[in-house]
Amino acid sequence: ALLPADAQLRIKWPNDIFLDDHKLGGILIENTVQGSRIVFSVVGMGLNVNQTEFQYPTATSLQNRSPLPDGYNLPGLLAALAERIEARYLQLRANRRTGLQTDYLARLFRYHEEHWFLTDNQRFRGVITDVDEAGRLQVLANGMVQSFGFKEIAFEL
To answer: Would 152 disulfide with which of 33, 64, 118, 148, CB 3.0-4.6 Å?
Structure first.
């Protein structure tokens, strides 16, 4: 195990990877679209592994959370990560999306928890209830579920 049992690895919608309440890394996806069809996607991922000092107080690394005397072995970590990504890709190829969605929501940062959000310079309390098929965040606020696309809503951390 790379992390202690009490560590909480979460996905902060839409593309951040959080360890406990700190940013561990992120995922960037660039799609090439023709009409309404995605032709191909390029996916990049960055993880803070052995770095121990950051400019931002909300950032962390594996080494900060679970120190190893000589740091983490990067080739071994990459191999383990690639194996897990391949397993999820094969799950997607087998059209087992329900399981993917369930697992995603189980790791979604602040899922089913009431927190403060910002949209159009308005601050409000809401509860994340889902992420729809288009990737929009579903937030229950004032008795109504609202959908938010990328950069339409911000989390107050």
So the answer is: 148
> Do 12 and 155 form a contact (C-beta atoms < 8 A)?
yes
Q: Looking at the predicted structure, is the pLDDT value of residue 157 above 80?
A: no
Give the tokens for residue 13.
């919608």
| pLDDT per residue as tens digits for the range 19-55 | 999 999 999 999 999 998 989 999 999 999 999 999 9
Calculate ∠ Cα 110-19-51, nearest 5°: 150
User: Can you tell me whether residue 112 is helix, strand or coil?
Assistant: coil
Residue type, position 5, single letter = A
Helix 74-93 × helix 97-107 angle, to 10° = 130
At 48 the three-state DSSP class reads: coil
Cβ neighbour number for residue 133 with a 10 Å cutoff: 8
Q: Are 61 and 53 in contact (CB under 8 A)?
A: no
Answer for the pair 24, 8: CB distance below 8 angstroms, yes or no.
no
Phi-psi region of 133 (alpha: psi -120 to 50; beta: other; left: phi over 0): alpha
pTM beyond 0.70, yes or no: yes
Name the residue with tokens 């990328």: 150
Answer yes or no: are the C-beta atoms of 100 and 92 closer than 8 Å. yes
